[in-house]
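The instructor's notes for this session suggest beginning with a concrete chain rather than abstract definitions. Hand out the sequence below and ask the class to guess, before any prediction is shown, which regions might be ordered.
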Amino acid sequence: MLVPLKFLKKWRERADRAGTDALETAVPLTEPEMRAVWLIASWLIGYPSDALYERLGRMRGLAGTLPVGVGGPLVEVIRALEEDDQFEVRADYVETFDTRRRGCLYLTYFMNGDTRKRGMALLEIKETYQQAGLDVSDDELPDHLSYVLEFGAAHDLRAALSILLKNRAGIELLRIHLVETGSRWAGALTALCATLPPLDTSDISEVQRLAAEGPAEERVGLAGYGDDGSLDMPPADMTPYRVPSSSTSAFIPLEDVKGPLQ
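After discussion, reveal the predicted structure:
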């Protein structure tokens, strides 16, 4: 996938201005409401563990206080998780996010695929966390969407917004994939996209083209995924891209995040 330079330049410029510009969202939101959306979405797109199920009632209550344009889609996800069999949900989660390229939750994958450029993109995100006095645990990559949203909800909303805007195309591609497949998690991405500046006509055209092309296919020193370039192959193991921790601070676990719920 080759992102058009005009599209990339536009959203990078928006990302650079995220720290100073007024918040622009598709659905009018206050900053606390934006944090609340991100917090709920970060939980919902995480693995459906017992801990997540224990939080669903709390999340439903918070989502009910939000504008319908963001709260409604979040409640739809919560309802689906509550009503469906937990074993089925967990199997579907793996199928949705862990075995399909288009369902990848690692933001830099959509922009860079399995290419050498991804290492630099990951390092940039990790440095953003470290500037806030945080670090990513060794068992996760810094561009996981749950991490970015958690960071924005509980720590630095503007810095997280910059990360999201730089990866705007990937977020929209993930939303489209979840909507088109009828995924129970589609509402989480619908709500997230409503907290970002809306796409204009030219943006939509470019995203549609990118959706047809898929991510870049260069695979660096990685075997076992075949050589047919299938767009439906799972993302490769990104262990080679991990960057060493240089901070003693620990990234706050999701279960310890209070954020706008206080």
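Then share the key points. The longest helix spans residues 68-83. Residues 15 and 258 are 26 Å apart (CA to CA).
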